[in-house]
Amino acid sequence: MGAKTHYAQHYSPHLLEAFENPHPGQDIFTCLESQEFTSLCPITAQPDFARVRIAYIAHLKMVESKSLKLYLFSFRNEGVFGEDCVGKILNDLVALLAPKYLEVQAHFSARGGITITPFANYATPDYASLKEQRLLKCL
């Protein structure tokens, strides 16, 4: 029997790991999605469930997927609004990867008859038009 995976009990950006991009000269658009994102409402402490989609064009580094899974899981016991989750994920991944382009979107399950779908994106100056196009698409 293999070693059990340790899951952080609190939000921890230090869980994220990166590896060298094997194709830094190419604009490969990578999408990662988690169907199992959970955080807590900071007011009611009820769980909020979401599908989180992260898409990016790497520069020199790429995110390691298991570390991303563990990082996303670290939100499970955090009292944080969905919009803040998306902002933190974006900021943490930009700090780790320094990508050409990165976007984060979460589709939170309805609670009280309302769904929340926050979106945030980042781009270097060379990809500013892509940032604007993708942002306008979400409006």
Main beta sheet strand tally, sense and closure:
5 strands, antiparallel
Per CATH, the superfamily is GTP cyclohydrolase I, C-terminal domain/NADPH-dependent 7-cyano-7-deazaguanine reductase, N-terminal domain
Number of strands: 7
CATH topology-level name:
GTP Cyclohydrolase I, domain 2
The Cα radius of gyration reads 15 Å
Question: How many helices?
Answer: 3
CATH C-level: Alpha Beta
Helix content: 25-40%
Query: What gross morphology would you assign?
Result: globular
CATH architecture: 2-Layer Sandwich
Mean pLDDT: 94
- Counting copies of identical and different chains, the oligomeric state is single chain
Report on the architecture of this protein:
The protein is α+β, with helices and mostly antiparallel strands and 139 residues long. The chain has a single domain (13-138), classed as GTP cyclohydrolase I, C-terminal domain/NADPH-dependent 7-cyano-7-deazaguanine reductase, N-terminal domain (GTP Cyclohydrolase I, domain 2). Helix content is 26%, strand content 35%. The chain is built from 3 helices and 7 strands. Strands 2, 3, 5, 6 and 7 form a 5-stranded antiparallel beta sheet that branches. Strands 1-4 form a two-stranded antiparallel sheet. Strand 5 and strand 6 (114-116) form a beta hairpin. The longest helix has 16 residues, at 82-97. The radius of gyration is 15 Å and the shape is globular. The mean pLDDT is 94. Its EC number is 1.7.1.13. This is NADPH-dependent 7-cyano-7-deazaguanine reductase.
